[in-house]
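Thought: the user asked what 2,3-oxidosqualene cyclase looks like in 3D. I have the sequence; next I should run the structure tool and report back without guessing.
Action: structure_tool
Action Input:
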Amino acid sequence: MQRARDVLARTQEADGSWKGDYGGPLFLTPVYVAGLYVMGRAPDARTREGMLAHLRAHQNDDGGWGLDVESRSLVFTTVLNYVAQRLMGVDATDPDLVRARAWFLPRGGPLGSGSWGKFVLALLGLYDYDGLTPIPPEPWLLPRWLPFHPSRLWCHCRMVYLPMGWLYGRRARAVETPLLAQVRRELYPQSYAAVDWKEARNRVAASDAYTPRSGWLRAVNRALGLYERVHPKRLRARALEECLALIRGEDEATHHLCIGPINKVLNTVVWHLARPDGPEVRAHLERLPDYLQHSADGTKVNGYNSSQLWDTAFAVQALVASGQAAGARDTLERAGRFLEAEQVLEDSHQAARHHRHPSRGGWPFSTRAHGWPISDCTAEGLKACLLLEPLGLNRVPRERLAQAVEFILSLQNRDGGWATYEQQRGPRWLERFNPSDVFAGIMVDASYVECTSACVQALVAWRKARPEAPVGRAIARGVDFLRRTQRPDGGWEGSWGVCFSYGTWFAVTGLVAGGLKPGDPVLRRASAFLKAHQREDGSWSETLQSCRERRWVEGPMGHAVTTSWALMALAATGDGESEAARRGVAWLRARQGADGRWPPEPLAGVFNRTCAIHYDTYLRIFPPWALSRWGNLMS
Ligand code: LAN
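Observation:
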């Protein structure tokens, strides 16, 4: 544990945070390259070399690219990464690109791609807008009370479809170049002129169809197709204006970072077309490099501008849990400063006009500048500050801690749980209209086990520090949500980590914080669930396939992060002294290297059930945290 703590201390940034690679997805880099190309730009030489190396490193044996670095090939990412490499100057005769073509051509090329791929290609003029299911901007003009008003979509989804609507409404398209003309000839199994675009709208290769298009969605698409033929010009102009105003709102609230890498690129392209060389474009270009990550496996576009706040809050908790905070005072002091510096202090400008929830008091996943605070990031930030308080290392003033609590309370859903950035706004049936093909659960921000547990834990910690705080009812409702979501097998499904081990760790920790005692049937079932999935060698192992198939799927090896989650959950249920826990701890200890680190293993993060994402600090945070939980129980 001492060596593990030293590793954490050594890898802290000067600003007190932990900052690392947040890669994994393989659809972000090509969108970035395509966006630059539409603007007549290209990555600088170092970035270009790094990106090419990254794509080479992650091409699958069959010649394609997966949705992320670990998954099987999709047409979506294979075609986009092929195009990105061509745009960065790789020749069509390059053997790896020849292999890629051999993979995607029999699957229809762009015609088989998931819908976002088709959109990006349309932007480049490599796919006809007639072949897209319509994404008109007009829904933004509908009355807000409608259950399907776009402001009710999950913020990540609506912030991607917002610039898409503007670009679609304008049929925005890159200036044609000889290179684009040539690439267009390479992409299709038949001649471009012979493509039946209407038919192409409904086509998607089996590899890309994770979320099937429902009858409901197909009906809406048909209706929108008819609307597109008759849409009034004046209405379109007004809708485009509304979209542009909302895009400006997003840019300003996020200091031009935008909520994520996709709308970051699309918004930049929007401004390039709306006001070429204007101040908006300049402001955007300055913030583009924030998303770039140069790593051992090349250069990639990160999934977020960073995961700093999240990692720092966890690092603090792991260090304090180890019971020897004294030895890590400097590290914790710096972390405390970082937490202080990144809390959001004000609501964004005209929040309601821009469909934004008030943000004062919240913590984002990354940095204050990002401007989108999240329920569980706020909860973990608050928990960390409250742990630092008795050590004299908390820097956040009382009233700002109270604002964090207010922020958390303002996000609780009617079902007692917490979603991510907002209260649930849309009905669950909106999921039937998910048009993305490759992702699940992108339409509605509904309650999650992880967010709910984190908020319950934070409120409990707050009540311990300030016994007069009126948070009892919120806690009780959260606990009730956690109870209700336990599956018959005793586990909980996680959404943002792989998968049942993550969900169960959160659920159990929240329930115990909320007052459940060892011996409670809920905890006994959870413990039995975990024990049933322990491997011969004492470890636990879960892969991304767990999230996709919604049942526990093991990999060939034990994973230190999965084992840590399982061990922490077991300890919380009261089974920390069981034989199962002993064997798990022994495995985890034996796996630590002489340098204090745990060796690399498959990605432990996930989103929207299908895409893996890398959390750089998890292998440094969770194993020592788990070991110390166990150590404390034993002493
Ligand atoms: C994240 C990153 C952080 C993550 C946690 C805080 C860990 C989680 O507990 C709540 C959900 C959240 C905020 C989250 C949601 C989905 C994100 C934003 C991501 C996994 C990072 C990238 C991903 C985003 C959706 C990627 C772009 C793709 C789309 C489908 C829009």
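Thought: the tool returned a structure. Summarizing for the user.
Final Answer: Structure for 2,3-oxidosqualene cyclase predicted. The chain has a mean pLDDT of 97. The chain has three domains: 1-22+306-484, 28-301, 486-635.
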